[in-house]
């Protein structure tokens, strides 16, 4: 169990994890470098569309499950 004396380690770890770019960011930067701003924009819109489709499909399944259960 971590004590209060290890709080600095927790804070530093959290900051590092928050500023490290993820695979989506690396993909957008790579597409931008290869194809310019249009390629980066297309990559960002594609990632956003995929995220939205996945989000709404999950919320739809949850709603159906609640209706069937209740």
Q: Total strand count, please?
A: 0
Discrete helix count = 2
Distance between the termini: 41 Å
Gyration radius, in Å: 20 Å
The chain-level structural class is mainly alpha
Features:
70 residues, 2 helices, mainly alpha
Task: Spell out the blueprint of helices and strands.
Blueprint (H helix, E strand, L loop, with lengths): L6 H13 L3 H47 L1
Short description:
By secondary structure, the chain is mostly helical. 86% of the residues lie in helices and 0% in strands.
Explain this structure.
There is one protein chain. This protein has helices at residues 7-19, 23-69. It has 70 residues and is mostly helical. The longest helix has 47 residues, at 23-69.
């Amino acid at each position: 169990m971590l004590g209060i004396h290890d709080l600095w380690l927790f804070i530093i770890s959290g900051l590092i994890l928050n500023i490290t770019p993820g695979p989506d960011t690396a993909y957008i930067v790579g597409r931008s470098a290869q194809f310019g701003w249009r390629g980066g924009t297309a990559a960002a819109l594609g990632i956003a569309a995929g995220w939205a489709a996945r989000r709404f499909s999950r919320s739809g399944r949850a709603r159906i499950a609640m209706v069937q259960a209740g």
